[in-house]
Fold these 2 entries.
Entry 1:
Amino acid sequence: MRKEDFRQWLDGKIKKKPISDCISRCTTVEYALKVDLDEEYRKDKMQKLIFQCRKSSISKRAVMLFSD
């Protein structure tokens, strides 16, 4: 992720503290999923990544419901 470009884009849209939080959370997502969010956005506006995350989240909830 191009952190400085993202920081500049967010500047004026939200306050300073939330900007740092957004960047930190995005960095965490990139590390955890081993992706580059800029590249994922360029490919398909993150549609595949969002679908995979939703599918994973639904799967985890289903497993929790039926695991007793």
Entry 2:
Amino acid sequence: DLTRQSWTMACMSNITRGVWGAGDPTTNVIDFLEIESAGTATDFGDATVARFNNRGSSNGHAGIEADFPRAPELYSPTGKVLPQGGGRGDIGLFAGGDPGNDDTIQHVTISTTGNATDFGNLTVGRFETDAVSNGTRALWGGGKHSSIVDVIDYVEFRSKGNAADFGNLTGVRHKFGACSNSTRGVWGGGQNPSGRVDVIDFVTIATVGNASDFGDLVAVNVGVCSTGSTTRGVFAGGTSPSRVDVIQYITIASAGNTTDFGDLLATNQNQGACSSSVRGVFGGGYTGSGTNVIQYITIASTGNATDFGDLTVARDSLGSTSNDTRGIFGGGGEANQIDFITIASTGNATDYGDLVNAVNTPKATSNGHGGLS
């Protein structure tokens, strides 16, 4: 029994205790009892005001799983909790692309194989954007719609849904490279309506707001790609104004201009790039025609790139990301193929599956790439 007769009360619970409050006749009394035991309710306290026709709810009622709250996750078909950060994350996201100023965000579980599935949509459909992330958030900055934009969008890895506005780059740009660690996201190079630029911007990923100036690339550059470790961001290739083989790097935690790292195997633009905490890998690109070459560097040292193997299909303008163990390359050349490699080894890529749609420049990131600690 309750401590008094009443009806039209507010009722709520967690998995152990039920609570009833107020009701008619008008009262402020709140009762409780332990759900697993039988017996009479006990006085809990009083509502601030006597009332009736009350209603109640809680964030822990009996319909909630006993292990709530759960670790951040993407609710996959398996229902398994997916870890994040420090190379442990496994959610890869591709977004945007051409043709059609695509606004689609699509996701894969990197450690498995299979086709991508829909995640949500960007705030503005566009192509030639690029992405950064930490273990919690993914951001896409800049790109081109009907005109070049400075928009930065973000999503939370833990839940599917549409992107929200994060802020703006220091200026409108597209065709650039991007890299990140657990704290900072960095975009370098690209093109604005006046021409090629050498600008590097950065944001603090956990804080919504506009980008700030970081420094400059060694030269103006369009079509550069980028990846990195927890310490370094590496930019490779591009056009300046002709194609270049230059690899350059920054220390992500500080601000400043890039330093020469070494050279690619050939002049190349519009590659896909991914990394573990040790290796940076560049795949595909345009060397006069689309190429299938994959090459790699050791990020902590400097020096020229080394041959890794080949993609399944020669193509440029592709998206790429990783989970610190496996790198994936998707789209490009208006293809929908996704390839994968094991970053610590060398060899040819293997078919992974397909994107939702065939697009150029579907820029990708993950919650467990080589830049996360």
